[in-house]
Amino acid sequence: MKSGKVVESKNWYISYYFEGKKIAESVSPNKRVAEDALKSVAGDIAKGKYSLRRDTKSPKFEGYAEVYLEYSKANKRSYETDITMFKALSAFFKGYKLSKITPFLIEKYKIERGKKVARMSKKPIAKATINRELAILKAMFNMAIRDGEADTNPVKAVKFFKEDNKKERILTSEEIQRLLAECNGHLKPIVIFALNTGMRLREVLYLKWSRIDFNRNIIIVTQTKSNKNRNIPMNGFVIKTIDNIKRNSEYLFCDTKTGKPFDSIKTSFGKALKRSGLVDVRFHDLRHTAATMMVMSG
User: CA nearest 40: which of 117, 111, 103, 106?
Assistant: First the structure.
């Protein structure tokens, strides 16, 4: 690319030449974002990765999102989470061809998404949540480029939100009792497991009977982030909880109608927190609480 520039208007846009043709694209109301977009284009041209796609060949967002989710289902543990994030993305980008999704449009998504209110907390959607949605959108465009369905990744020119690093929340004994008192049905044993083992939510939800060694009173966890097994001792609370669970499936915690593990407890856990009057508590905080209690007990 011999020349290129960032031009100011209501929205900043970039202007450059490619194969003798002048190209102008509206990018963002933010000058820095436009400058980064121009650098990205210049880099792709220099590496021979840039080409002008015909708009008629570009797939629509919702169509290619299905392709990405098929890949996610076969290759990622976060498939269920990906589905949730694509629901939010599709509500905004549905109908757009990939070639029409620009950094400016993604900036609009950030703004509009930030105005939404979470159903359970009644608070604005967290910046961290929007960042995760942008990350999955970026991953989808990377795959589209590899598949020859897109030329560039517009998310690369978009600034993610700066996140506030939330401190670990350790529940007190009184708070634990309040929470357990409000946990109904399948939720209570799941919470007891988390508080007494320090297991991650997904590890608890997908725990199989075959991974429990009753002779040694340990749980063998296999689905960990490191892909390594670890043995977790079972205390009296865990053993008593297990004794009260019927073996209706290969999983300890499952839907009695389907025999399949629960995909999420977000709604029931959120309601229990609200009833117990606990604020700023995540399920992951139960893991931190368990670790603290183990240290204090020696």
Answer: 103
188 and 255 inside one domain: yes
What range defines the domain where residue 183 resides? 173-296
- Clarify whether residues 113 and 29 are in a common domain: no
Do 11 and 107 belong together in one domain? no
What is the per-residue pLDDT across 249-281, written as a single tens digit (0 to 9) for each?
A: 999 999 888 888 988 898 999 999 999 999 889
Number of separate domains in the chain: 3
**Mean pLDDT estimate for the chain:** 85
Residue 162 lies in a domain: no
164 falls within a domain: no
Range of lowest pLDDT (58-67, 73-82, 116-125, 211-220): 116-125
Single-letter amino acid code for the residue at 147: D
Inside any domain, residue 186:
yes
Report helix, strand or coil for 34. Answer: helix
- The sign one gets for the Cα dihedral 132, 133, 134, 140 is positive
What CATH number is given to the structural domain containing 231?
Answer: 1.10.443.10
Q: Which residues contact 145 (CB under 8 A, 6 or more apart)?
A: 151, 152, 153
Q: Per residue in 113-169, pLDDT tens?
A: 999 887 766 788 888 889 999 999 999 999 999 998 898 899 999 999 887 656 678
Distance CA 56, CA 258 (A): 44
Write phi, then psi, for 261 (nearest 5 degrees). -65, 155
